[in-house]
Each structure stands twice: as C-alpha cells, then as structure tokens.
Design brief:
With about 100 residues, this protein is of the alpha+beta class. About 60% of the residues lie in helices and about 15% in strands. The protein has one domain (about 1-105): NAD(P)-binding Rossmann-like Domain (Rossmann fold, 3-Layer(aba) Sandwich), CATH 3.40.50.
C-alpha cells in the first residue's frame, strides 16, 4: 500500500499539474529507515510499541520507505522538464523538550 498508493498519488498529481501548465511540487513522505536501510534504536523502540509481536515488520517497512524515496527521485528526473519538482521528507521522532532540558542539566 505504501508504494502503490504513493505511485497513484504521484501519477494523478502530475497529470493535474501538467494539465494546468504551471508545474508544481510533489512531496513524498519517507523515513530514516528508508534512507539507511537498517534498524536504529529509536525505530526498534517505536516498533515495540506499535507491534509487540516482534520486528519482522522492520524489513518490509524499510523496503517500502526506500521504494518511496526511489519513486520520488525517479519522478523528479522524469518531471523536471515540465517544471514539476519532487522531493521526499523524512519524519523524525524528537524527545519532548522537558526531557532534553533534563539531559542538559
């Protein structure tokens, strides 16, 4: 779903932007897991909360987010001549500010 849904969103967004003739921006939501392709401690902690049955999900999650990054890069290469720019953003999890302040003391 992650890759297929992204593909169709890009496809129809690009068609609309081409029809309007003004170009545009397509932004994909990726993850650090798709960038590094390996487990990181914060991701394992998150997966423990989301999926208490284990980390079998991690490989599929990394692969799907890596695919979103690749699809976004390919779309950017193909659509740049039509003034359509694509980019992906990686979401991060930050500690609440009160925890950061405690660590700094």
């Amino acid at each position: 779903m992650n890759v297929k849904g992204t593909f169709y969103c890009y496809k129809y967004a690009a068609q609309q932007m081409i029809a309007q003739g003004d170009g545009g921006r397509i932004i994909g939501a990726s993850s650090l897991a798709g960038k590094k392709g390996k487990s990181t401690q914060w991701l394992l902690c998150l997966l423990d909360l989301m999926f208490p049955l284990g980390h079998a999900f991690l490989s599929a999650y990394c692969a799907s987010k890596f695919a979103v990054r690749g699809l976004t890069q390919s779309a950017g290469t193909v659509l740049c001549s039509l003034t359509i720019i694509s980019a992906s953003i990686d979401h991060h999890f930050f500690q609440p500010l009160n925890l950061v302040a405690k660590e700094l003391q």
